[in-house]
């Protein structure tokens, strides 16, 4: 039985900053952001979007009534959760009107959470082939104004429906993974922004890639020439290339060109959004599938997942017949076209607008946010959402 990704939804807020504007305002050569990091635009979440609403908007795009009935497991990967106790998955379950006979749980391991969810979903579907699993990968990446990490912020969510006989990508049985306790990036419970050892995090991302890739090669006997493309977790779009270029040199020229070209295509959406932590790898996969017309049935796609702290995993999947017809390409293109470019001053204002941290109430104005599902406020320590 094939198990894998049946549908992919994606949502990013309607506001963005152009990286040239940010560079100018910060007195930095724009080439550092656009070439050195490979980022063109950065999504900016208004106060009416939090990880719950972002995920709900992404999932709402792809689920029909049959899916809603069949989903009996909701796994929410995030590192910007809204509550220490109640999982973000329960909110989404309610907002989307899913079948109450479901398990709903939040998963955390930095950017790796959704990959853990996919592997758990695979096991669940193997036991219950008539069911479906909804994975949510939703985050707001915040490092702070004027920090080195500022240019690698972003916001958005990917919704992944896992089922038997998937229409997009059947997951293969071998995947390789690795854990080591390191401090490259973390966010203590008292802090609203992440702490990061930037250079060290880059080195560890590549070191973990080598560990899992070498293990994968040993276990499968495969080499890079067997892959149509490899999608990477992309904290910024140059990062995956930094890892890929270390293993690509000895590969025959034709395969090298294919992997380089497909890598570029797999970064298209991420260049316009920035880092969305748990969703970044799956946004890169989506970018590849929606923007590369030469991919075909049975092509093998590799996926490198990395979550600081750190866990890495290399997994792979096989493209399914007619997969192109089951993507939401037009929806995503319209979403990008309708975004509003804001000045750096406006971005700074939006960044500073936060929910009260002292338990006081706040009603939010949702009329300016075009999203279907918005955070409406906090009353009596409880978040409320509106579905327009
Ligand atoms: P920085 O110190 O501001 O930048 O930090 P830099 O000086 O290293 O420059 C970046 C690149 O731009 C360099 O290229 C420069 O040469 C180049 P490289 O040597 O790296 O190839 N450059 C230029 N290029 C063209 N024209 C110019 C120009 N000027 C310079 N004029 C850093 C960059 C990424 C470290 C920082 O933004 C940061 O700390 N970001 C957050 C951490 C991060 O993204 N780490 C990535 C790996 S860890 C990870 O992926 C996990 C994560 O997603 C979290 C999670 O798991 O939850 C972050």
From TrEMBL:
Its EC number is 2.3.3.10. Keywords: Acyltransferase, Transferase. GO terms for molecular function: hydroxymethylglutaryl-CoA synthase activity. Residues 2-163 form the Hydroxymethylglutaryl-coenzyme A synthase N-terminal domain. Residues 254-349 form the Hydroxymethylglutaryl-coenzyme A synthase C-terminal domain. It comes from the Bacteria. It is an enzyme of class 2 (transferase). It holds the Pfam family HMG_CoA_synt_N. InterPro entries: HMG_CoA_synt_C_dom, HMG_CoA_synth_N, HMG_CoA_synthase_prok, Thiolase-like. Belongs to the thiolase-like superfamily. HMG-CoA synthase family. This is Hydroxymethylglutaryl-CoA synthase. It comes from Oceanobacillus locisalsi.
